[in-house]
Amino acid sequence: MSIATAPRSGTLLPRLATWTLWLLGALLLVFVVAVPMDVAQQMIFSAVLFVVALFLRRRGGRVVVLMMMGMSLAVSSRYMWWRLTETMGVGGVVDLVLGLGLVAAELYAFVILVLGFFQVLWPLNRKPVPLPADQREWPTVDVFIPTYNEPLSVVRTTVLAATVMDWPSDKINVHVLDDGRRPEFREFCEQVGVHYVTRTNNFHAKAGNINAALKKAKGEYVAIFDCDHIPTRSFLQVAMGWFLRDPKLAVVQTPHYFFSADPFERNLGTHGKVPNEGELFYGLLQDGNDQWDATFFCGSCTVIKRGPLDEIGGVAVETVTEDAHTALKLHRRGYRSAYLAIPQAAGLATESLSGHVAQRIRWARGMAQIARLDNPLFGKGLRISQRLCYLNAMLHFFYGLPRIIYLTAPLAFLFFGAHVIHASALMILAYALPHIFQANLTNIRVQGKYRHLLWNEVYETTLAWYILRPTLVSFINPKLGKFNVTPKGGLVQRGYFDSQIAKPYLFLLVLNLAGIAAGIMRWSFASDAGELHTIWFNLGWTVYNMLLLGATIATASETRQVRRSHRVPLDAPVSVRLADGTLLEGRTINFSTGGMAIRLDQPQPIEPGMNVQIGLRHRGVEQPLPAIVRHDRDGQISIEFAQMDLEQERWLVACTFARADLWLGQWGQHDRDSFLRSVGQVLGASMRGFRRLGQHSISSLRRGFRPVGHEEGA
């Protein structure tokens, strides 16, 4: 939406606050950042700002957040000014090359910090707009469900949920876009009453699949769901209202919510305790983008207006991140986008770390391609705010090299005595620690519900090595690489240590261990106080890197995942009719496509293996579904659904996965971050990583160092 013309709540206040922040920032840069200080003065200045930030962080209101951002930028800008003007001495070729590499990594982190603050200055928090009371005024919608090699068991629930969405039946058409051209999919679509669409080739992968289907669809709007993303019944009613309010609106995006644990959550044991990698983007950044009319199309859980999409030639095919590139093209044409932070669909996360890494490689490659082929900093049609939001999204995926530099920088001194920062250890601490602490304190205040301190370091450390080469190669030659489909619905039959995926981090771990040994040797021969301080500084940095590497190694220890049907918490009324006609009332505890756990109001012994009828209510109507009792534990029974016909299966989906309220109570409910808790959690994960590495090493010794397959127990 246009900030100038669209109806927003409190439009004037955010704009005034934004310009006030820029003015304060400029004044701080002029009067504070470049002022020279000795160690004592620098520490006092930084301490005063930090104490003020500590006082402010528990205060409510957006203005407090803006003040904390301003102080953080002042301290960080001062650090970068000092680094560039006072620490870039040339002691030799090694010092120069390694020093330039480190300062480049720090400049990258500083730019990301500044752009990140700008992106979330004043999140819009958009609310749904009601539709007209007369359903004849509602537009026609085509629902696209692209699929390639996913099993029918994954796609089935999504298709059934799409058929029960609350929208007039004569104004909605569901299309399964099968690039796998599988007969069983065609047969299923005929049985369930949806359109089966295929083509004779797989050109341009998912983007080409959608574009081919657009030629056969006639609706005014297109809703797109990945084949594992199950829409709720209310999806269209929540998403469509803004289109009727704003004729220039082309995209409405909703969150990607995953009801299964991703590999980080499962292997680190953080599911439900720590926000996952995507929650910052969908919980905060997209809301921030919305204020600047820079919401990205994310490929799923989205509605796109057909006219603007046709105007840009369909979904973008020039890059492998067709979604973000499509949004960029629409924004260049003057169309607007919107974000509703209300989960209206839920899907499956990747099962293995290798699959997760492959997905992130594709995202990173695609963003590098956009940076090379259609860089938002250049060209027509975008406002400065939009360019900055897109720039941040692109630059984010270039963190591979800076992260590797941070993991190896202290080794330059420990191994070779190279001074990559030409300053005393005390002076470095006086400038660097305030920069780090102030930025982290501000981010805890800004991002605390959506990203916990240090966990982002673990995520980026794990992925850094693998996105480094694809981003650099794609930036140089954007035509290299291809679209890879993220595998979903698989199993991890046995726990194993994925030594292949962990190999680069094992190498880095050995390097850091050798660095500590070298540092201890230097310490034993050092006599100068300044050199001793430098040794301790670099040893401390190396120990911190090892903490991150330990947690990274823990992510490579895959735990078992043997459920094809993931359990989802649900508290809803249910009835159980026994074979003799006895009716028992209760409430559901959780459910899956295969079964359900129920707590009976009046416990009564039920024999395992007994056939029962499970009554689930939808719009005040109850329909019985066949089931078999598997367990009975003091009034809590576990049932497995028996063979159902399509209408019964559709009813089950309507009463469970497609409930409008189901995901609202589970998304974004983490406690706000705290420094000590995050440090303790990451330290615990690191210790588990080292323990699992030790178990793997012992197992390898016992096996005579034979090649380790994916069936090795851990």
From TrEMBL:
GO biological process terms on file: cellulose biosynthetic process; UDP-alpha-D-glucose metabolic process
GO cellular component annotations of the record: plasma membrane
Metabolic or biological pathway, per its Swiss-Prot or TrEMBL entry: Glycan metabolism; bacterial cellulose biosynthesis
GO MF annotation list: cellulose synthase (UDP-forming) activity; cyclic-di-GMP binding
All copies of domain Glycosyltransferase 2-like, residue ranges: 143-312
Major localization class: membrane
Keywords, ordered alphabetically: c-di-GMP, Cell inner membrane, Cell membrane, Cellulose biosynthesis, Glycosyltransferase, Membrane, Transferase, Transmembrane, Transmembrane helix
Stored InterPro entries: Cell_synth_A, Cellulose_synth, Glyco_trans_2-like, Glycosyltr_2/OpgH_subfam, Nucleotide-diphossugar_trans, PilZ_domain
Localization per record: Cell inner membrane
Membrane topology recorded in Swiss-Prot or TrEMBL: Multi-pass membrane protein
Catalyzed chemical reaction(s): [(1->4)-beta-D-glucosyl](n) + UDP-alpha-D-glucose = [(1->4)-beta-D-glucosyl](n+1) + UDP + H(+)
Pfam families xrefs: Cellulose_synt, Glycos_transf_2, PilZ
PilZ domain ranges (all copies): 561-657
Transmembrane segments: 12-33, 39-56, 63-81, 93-118, 388-406, 412-433, 504-523, 535-557
UniProt EC number: 2.4.1.12
Cofactor requirements of the protein: Mg(2+)
PANTHER family (UniProt xref): CELLULOSE SYNTHASE CATALYTIC SUBUNIT A [UDP-FORMING]
Family: Belongs to the glycosyltransferase 2 family.
Function, in words: Catalytic subunit of cellulose synthase. It polymerizes uridine 5'-diphosphate glucose to cellulose.
Protein name: Cellulose synthase catalytic subunit [UDP-forming]
